[in-house]
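Raw record, unedited: HAMP domain-containing protein
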Amino acid sequence: MQKTIKCKGEEMSKKFRHYREGIRKSFVIYAIIPVVIITLASYLLSFSSLYRTIVSRNYKYNVQIADTIGNIIGTYQNQADHLSKDGGMQDYLELNFSNSKLYSSFYDFVNKMETKGNFFVFNDKLKPLIQSSDHIPEYAQGEADFMWGPIRRMLDMPEKVILARQPAFTADSPSLTVGKAIVIKGRVAGYITFDFNKRDLVNLISKNFSTSVVITDKFGYVIACTNELLVNELGKIDVNFRDKSGVVESKDDSQYVTRTEILDAEISIYTLTSIGYFRSMLILTGVLLSLLFGMLTLTTYLSARKIADSKTKVIDDIIRAIEHVQNGNLETQLKVNTNDEFQVFAEAYNQMLGDIKNLIEANKEKARQNVLSEIKQLESQFNPHFLFNTLETIRYMVKMNPSSASTMIVVLSNLLRYSINNTITEVNLGDDVEYTKNYLFIQKYRFGNKFDYEIHVDEAALDCIVPKLIVQPIIENAIMHGFANRQTLTVQIKAAISEDTLVVIINDDGEGMEPKVLQKIKHILDGNINNSSHIGLYNVHRRVQLIYGEKYGVDLSSEHHGGTVVKITLPVNRGGERTC
């Protein structure tokens, strides 16, 4: 009996091997070997050709941009140097002689240039004497004793023509400054500056849609770019690409990078081309394989006919099971005992269903963790320019008013400690308002009588639980944009409970927004991705919706020259059950 069983087992084993070997030989002889050879040859040829094309075009475009930028900025540098040494300019500053030719020389020079820069001539007190724009740059605003940015660099290096990158908050903001001090009898008597706005520089380098261009200073800060995704939160080029050339692997893609330094290494030109184009090669290979497999299907049809007939029932079972999965039913199991590849497939299918169900549960947990991670990331975004300006103010206060400087340091310390405390996500509104007072104290000291604020919070609203840093970013945004073309600014903070909703309103009497800008910001708030410079409003709105749902968030209204009102709606939550 055992012998009979053994014989049947050997016979079954032989049939199984015959079936497997027959299929293998058919595909090896008629399909696999030709496909492998043709696919490999096509892939290598296409890869080599495409790679050489990408490298060549990237390099040529980099050289073109570098020559264009170098020539334009170099010409402005030469003009600034020439005008700073012009006798008429020196007489104008020293003796206050009017000189119409001096005005004409500026306008004639700028009008001849492909890229128009705003020009200014300041005296040593930063009073504008000649100007092409009514908007005075931030680096020339304020008291002459508190010089910073390009003015400070020209004062420190009066013999050189300086290049200075400016933080461009809008597309029309200055992004790069060329400047030269005017030295008369060994003394700096004035300054000449040419400002290039971000929009003009971007237009200058936006000639090729398939290649991204980034212009940085020698510290990696971005002056202009055609792809904001390549700029990090500090305003620098992504660390993956800084000072790199050749193929650079990033988180989401591979890029071919060419980097060129110009103007004595003061400026770097990066051109980046995505080499994800190789996916098109995969599509081409797929088409070739499809054609080959079509031919193989025809040649193997007759030989596979009997096998297909004998396996029809199993295949039908597999198809029905797959249809159940497509309809969302993950409980359908395959029961196949054919002792061949279909049984292996059925076992793998059953294992796959189990893995899919486990993966779904894992993805749910991961999604929850991602929401928490995004909230933490949004909380941690602190404006570095505010910190820089505050530290600069403290640096001068240490010399002139040590006691006030000590107070300022304590306030700044409290402010930073509160903002970077990752153990706290939600706080009482009263605590957040107290934190905001520290921020307002610093801004009040910085702007003096130009800035004022009022706080009106109902007693019932003080103990409501709100997300940390809910008020300060809105005020920061109001100060940043409200002072445009304004000498003074007043900010009002109000909070009250309306029915089952906590309403926080921050309004200012600043410059307000044009309808197009207001519409753009509202569009950003309606989405969940922000690639603009409006970080404060978006962060508050996004955090509120992540924590409490899309029913709550930020509502914005503004009139050009008529101020801005930001309304934040939150559920009433006093530390226990939420009222909503």
